[in-house]
Amino acid sequence: MAPPSAVSPTSVNSSDKPSAAVPHEPGISESKAKVQMPKFPGPPAFADKHAERDYLKGRLAAAFRIFGKYGFDEGVAGHITMRDPVQPDTFWVNPFGVAFSLIKKSDLIQVDHEGNIIDGGPVRLLNAAAFMIHGAVHKARPDVLCAAHSHSIYGRSFCSLGRKLDMITQDSCSFYNDHVLYESFNGIVLAEKEGNDIAACLGDGKAALLQNHGLLTVGDTIEAAVFWFLSLEKCCQAQLAADAAAGGRGHETVKIHDEDAAFTYKTIGTPRAGWFSAKPLFDVIEKECGPDYLQ
Question: What is the pTM of this model?
Answer without folding.
Answer: 0.87
